UniProtKB/TrEMBL annotation:
It is an enzyme of class 2 (transferase). CDD domains: HATPase, HisKA, PAS. Residues 127-157 form a coiled coil. It comes from Olleya sediminilitoris. This is histidine kinase. SUPFAM superfamilies: ATPase domain of HSP90 chaperone/DNA topoisomerase II/histidine kinase (SSF55874), Homodimeric domain of signal transducing histidine kinase (SSF47384), PYP-like sensor domain (PAS domain) (SSF55785). Its EC number is 2.7.13.3. NCBIfam families: sensory_box (TIGR00229). Keywords: Coiled coil, Kinase, Phosphoprotein, Transferase, Two-component regulatory system. Pfam families: HATPase_c, HisKA, PAS_9.
Amino acid sequence: MFQNSQDVFQLLSEAISEGILIVDETQTIIAVNTATEQMFGFSKDELNKQPLLTLIPSNFHKGHGHHFNTFYKHSEKRTMGKGRELYGTRKDGSNFPVEVGLNPFNVGEKKYVMALVIDITERKNYTDRLEKTVDERTKQLREALEAEKELNDLKTKFLSLVSHEFKTPLTGILTSTMLLSKYKLEAQQDKRDKHIETITSKVHYLNNILNDFLSIEKLESGKINYKFIQFNLSKVVNEVIYNANMLLKEGQKILYPENIDDITLIQDEKTVELALSNLVHNAIKYSPEQTTIEIIVNQDTKNTTFKVIDNGIGIPEKDQKNIFNRYFRAENALLDQGTGIGLNITKTHLENLGGNITFSSIEGQGSTFIMTIPNTVK
């Protein structure tokens, strides 16, 4: 009786672009349309009277019979594989994702199942791309939120830092000014001198902070005009060490670099001095008494490299990624004076001149800062 309806099936199925196949209760393929042939790469003759498992990947064979028998028993129209991914197997052995709709029907006393098969490769690829895009956007958003939170934390630290850095010297100036008025006798000149020295020192400190802020403004606006001249490196090193000696703590000493008398550069002399001074001053500031700061200088045919090595407090690993960020202060350095601007300015200047700065550090053991600058302007 089913065979008598074959012409009707062929007429209807060939007009449909989706794959159609019909199986009996033994899961034997009875009929397929052209779309099924094209989809799986088999001809009608190759599929006729073949088990349905021919079109199912081998790793899905286990349990398929149970699912089919359960469906066959209840004879209800439904989508196959709800909640899990389904795949078909082509003649060449390749697998592809499918969506399958099952429709039971009777012809006379015999029951059959018609499967409507859709190749969803393009849909799945689109979905996968969409999910990947969503994941990437979500990751970017998460990173942006974390970066914003980190930036807000840095801003909060900066405001607290600036408040402290200005308030402390201003308090010292105010106190010394008030005390000066109490020392009116000639014999108290030494006390007056002490407070005048304090005021002068605090004013210089505040002036340096303001100069740092002005340097940042100039760097950002591109108003820095570098002056390139040829100079002896020993002149710069001598100047840096001479000024640094006045900052040394009890028992601290600076090891002078060897074999630099014949080294010359064609660079911005003041910028090189500024950068080296910043590294040496930091080494002094963040190192305890009775320690040594070592300066090592090497020059090859292209670059001059400066190493400033200390045995100080070091930089916590979690803070190292931010150490060149403007206004950033490492957690273990918050009680020391400073604005967190120096290293940022130094890095920007060096990069403007074609150089760079790197470092290595272990908390509690010290730091080594390495700055490299071209021997001559390119």
